[in-house]
Amino acid sequence: MRRRTFGRRQALTILGFFAPAIVFVSWFTYWPMLQGAQMAFRDWNLWDLTSTPWVGLGNFAMILADPVFPIVAGNTLVWVVGSIVPQLVIGFLVALALWRRFRFRGVYQALIFYPWAVSGFLVGMLFRWMFNAEFGVVNDLLMKAGAIDAPLPWLADPKLAMVAVIVANVWYGVTFFAIMILAALQSVPDEVLEAAAIDGAGTVRRLFSIVIPYIWTTLALTVLLRSIWTFNSPEIIYAMTNGGPAGRTHIITTWMIEYTQQGSYGLASAIGLAVMVVLFVFCAFYLMAMRRVNQR
Amino acid sequence: MNRTRAVTASLATMSLLALTACSGGGSAADGTVRLQMVESLTNPARTALIRELLDEFEAENTGVTVDLVSPPTDQADQKLQQMLQSGRGVDVLEVRDSTVGAFSNNGWLLDLSDDATTWAGWDDLTDNAQAVTAEDGARYYVPYGFYGLSLFYRTDLVETAGFDGPPASWEDLLEQASAIQDPGQNTYGYAFRGGQNGFSNVVAAVEAYTIDDLDVENAYLLTDGSTIFSAPEAQDAVDTYFSLFEEAAPPSAVSWGYPEMVEGFTNGSTAFLLQDPEVIATVSESTTITAEQWSTAPLLTGPTGKAAQPLATAGWGVAEASEHQEEAADLVEFLSGAEPATRFAQENSLVPIIDGAGEDPFYSEGPWSSYVEMTEDPETYVNVVQPRGVSWWTEWEQKADRDLQAVLLGSMTTSELLEEWDTFWTEKYASEQ
């Protein structure tokens, strides 16, 4: 009996400490999420909020039937893969370069990590000017280096525009990979590497046989996190091309913004909900695949 | 038990704090009134100016204080909508010609008809200012100024190319811009708008070509009820307009929006720019071109020598849910008064709402004179109303911009563009009936 009373008190104390967090997270995260989710099943248009009837899966059907959908889906895939692969490779190389102690390492680290402190929208604005055909620094440098004879219309040509937005995103995201990988590299024990070196393993062998397996979990999780963020982040594209030219750089989230701007909150919410489901499925498969690899 | 009470009390206190944090202005115990005003086209200089005007209002109206809320422009309309939907926290707000329809449809705006027309300063407002406030028998806002197009041009380049003066018509513009175009020297004829909001200049050209049959109350329709895009003259208009891209603009103008166009003109690489008067201040501050090197000319005319001047506007309105509608209406009246309104219009480069303000040297000299010229000749520069308040306006903007870029990229012809636009508007209007 005494033990039960103590347990209840303890439970109340715990609840007391948790309560503020529960209230705030519920109020500011889950309640808006539920509100947003129910909009996906209603005809919720800013123009007339006096009538918001339930439409079942109608909004989802409209999205799938939209001729823009396949283009947007393809662009999203190119945007995610095209951004993540270079970010991983360059971020890895940067982390390796910063791994060992050398003079002014702190300064180099600060310089390389600073993009992470800049807002994505601002990055987009900066790159929009850098890629401007007439006044931008990119064409200027390429012409001075003799790589091109005439200015390239980076943001006006559909293919080049996708390259330009991906370059901006790679620049922005390399930092995160570098930070995460460097932190993981610093946990690799020196004695293991030294022992491998004494046994005759060269740099490449040590990298692939010791370092990468050691930091594998960090690599996998970083790729997962950045894939989700890249999939979800419209700001660079929005600031650089607004989805243009002629919708050729539209991804799923810039498309969602377009519907929001039209006041079609029902359709925008349906896209948001679909994105959440797609990401959930992706995460589940990814983590299962990672587990299998780790078990080998 | 004490602990249970303590936990319950803490939760209740926090909930109360959260609720009070969400509430807007109101009446204090001492009887003072606190109004909350929300602007939506925010920038730091403008916010500072509004604050100064609000301080003057507070000095004249003892017992009333006004808090100014200035959300970032790109999120402002959404935040405003959320506040209006919640029915709290907004007394006075910025209402735009593109938001007034949605806001009033949802019952969020107070009809100012009775207040506005009985104000002492009502008769000081220009006919345009009085006219735009009326919507379906109600008046939901009082404009603070108008945005209107004029042609910014390089006086030196025009002269060097052998022309006597700036172009008056779209045909003239094509001729002069093509003559000036010299990509080898990094000189381009026309700052072509291919990016965001690029469709608006195409429509300006179509309206100039169809002006004789234009429904001035809805400048997307002809007097016979068909759309302007179905008129035979519209084909000539778009062909002339897109020739500007082919013959007198940089190829990358496909993606040029407001910043690139203005930069192209201020850095001296483009000879012509079609823009709102707010650009006057930006160009004046440029160190790349001198005051003698540029000026403005009236909006370009069509083949019959007339142009349609679509006046975009915004103003101040009162929230229906405001608990202090009387004081809020007083604030709108104050801001629409001759002195504050003229100051606001001048410092934000807007066409003024006050009758006779155009006689001020500020407007009658230099680059502003073209606006006065247009105002004084309404037969040539016909004021028209575009249907910016329809529920599909944003959808239209996005579609029209995409189609415009498709033409520039060669994946759509100009006649397909007109057919698309005609179908879009015809179907939208038909679905309303």
Q: Could you provide a short overview of the structure?
A:
The complex is a heterodimer of chains A (296) and B (433). Helix content of chain A is 74%, strand content 0%.
Low-pLDDT segments, ≥5 res of chain B = 1-24
Structural class of chain B: alpha/beta
Q: How many β-strand runs of chain B?
A: 13
- Main-sheet strand order of chain B equals 2-1-3-12-6
| DSSP summary: helix tally of chain B | 18
CATH superfamily of the domain at 69-249 in chain A: MetI-like
Proportion of beta-strand residues of chain B:
5-15%
End-to-end distance of chain B: 66 Å
Query: Which architecture of the domain at 69-249 in chain A does the CATH hierarchy give at level 2?
Result: Orthogonal Bundle
Q: List the secondary-structure elements of chain A in sequence, H or E.
A: HHHHHHHHHHHH
Oligomer: heterodimer
Strand residue percentage of chain A: under 5%
What is the number of domains of chain B? Answer: 2
Protein name (chain B): Multiple sugar transport system substrate-binding protein
Keywords (chain B): Signal, Sugar transport, Transport
Pfam families (chain B): SBP_bac_1
InterPro entries (chain B): Bact_solute-bd_prot1, SBP
Characteristics:
heterodimer, A: 296 residues, mainly alpha, MetI-like fold, 12 helices, globular, B: 433 residues, alpha/beta, D-Maltodextrin-Binding Protein, domain 2, 2 domains, 4-stranded mixed beta sheet, disordered N terminus
